[in-house]
Specification:
86 residues; alpha+beta
């Protein structure tokens, strides 16, 4: 299953996160920005329900945890920058 990747046009100043999972011969690669993080989480769920894929709910849980951890790290970094004394 290959989703249409033609909508992957991001401005050059946009940070794009990449999340990948390799299961045997299958490769799952997810691109998302901070703005479409929720959509990426929904895609993980859709893949987990697709019986044609080896992608499981466990895979979805692990990858969604990574997405949430990344968000937490970014928020923590922003808080530290905000309170840093020049």
């Amino acid at each position: 299953m290959l989703d249409d990747l033609s909508n992957l046009h991001y401005p050059s100043d946009t940070d794009v996160n990449v999340l990948a999972l390799v299961k045997g011969k299958e490769r799952y690669v997810f691109f998302y920005t901070d703005e479409n993080r929720a959509e990426c989480l929904r895609v993980l769920g859709r893949y987990a329900t697709n019986e044609d894929l080896s992608f499981t709910w466990y895979d979805a849980a692990v990858l969604s945890q990574k997405i949430r951890q990344k968000k937490g790290e970014e928020e923590s970094e922003q808080r530290h920058r905000r309170f840093r004394i020049p």
